[in-house]
């Protein structure tokens, strides 16, 4: 089934367009070790990302998907500050776009689709990453995890896009790799496109019942009525 009326496509960033875990893992490891905690691995961080940097660091300090209830709030805050510093200092040198991302975005852009980034990543890091990978010009809106009081899976950011661009939910498609993306789409009433790679806390994206499931982002073209 192809969608004929899509006007705006919202993309998650980490795990959808960009494999950023190598850089996130290094920064998280440096942050927790600088405070005397045990090291964390890239494999662990892959399961912990997706809900914003605060939760990532809470999980790294707790070494668990569930943050330790006894974790000191001030320590957590300091760890987050250090994480941001280490992440910035790393320059995102280990991150890379997934296959066919640039080609797919360019094809959609040339066809006249409006595109936006809706990520739970801290806003201050997003523009530089998009520019670094030469994809910034594809997007009319860039929404970070702290752009609004609530982040995905809350529909606040997606509802903002509907209102700004004067479209209804059936004219927007959310593309992501995690249940937060799919739930945000469902909570907004728009269509969802789930990618099987990326970061979803070790769960298959199909468990969240997106409208479409794909192994490669270029399969998005057929969904919006375009040939590859």
UniProtKB/TrEMBL annotation:
Mg(2+) binds at residues 12, 14, 177. GO terms for molecular function: metal ion binding; phosphoglycolate phosphatase activity. It catalyses: 2-phosphoglycolate + H2O = glycolate + phosphate. It is an enzyme of class 3 (hydrolase). InterPro entries: HAD-like_hydrolase_sf (IPR050155), HAD-like_sf (IPR036412), HAD-SF_hydro_IA (IPR006439), HAD-SF_hydro_IIIA (IPR006549), HAD_2 (IPR041492), HAD_sf (IPR023214), PGP-like_dom2 (IPR023198), PGPase_prok (IPR037512). Pathway: Organic acid metabolism; glycolate biosynthesis; glycolate from 2-phosphoglycolate: step 1/1. One of its GO terms (cellular component) is cytosol. GO terms for biological process: carbohydrate metabolic process; DNA repair; glycolate biosynthetic process. The keyword Magnesium applies. The active site is at residue 12. It holds the Pfam family HAD_2. Keywords: Carbohydrate metabolism, Hydrolase, Magnesium, Metal-binding. Its EC number is 3.1.3.18. Its cofactor is Mg(2+). It comes from the Bacteria. Belongs to the HAD-like hydrolase superfamily. CbbY/CbbZ/Gph/YieH family. This is Phosphoglycolate phosphatase. It comes from Vibrio algicola. The lineage of its organism: Bacteria, Pseudomonadati, Pseudomonadota, Gammaproteobacteria, Vibrionales.
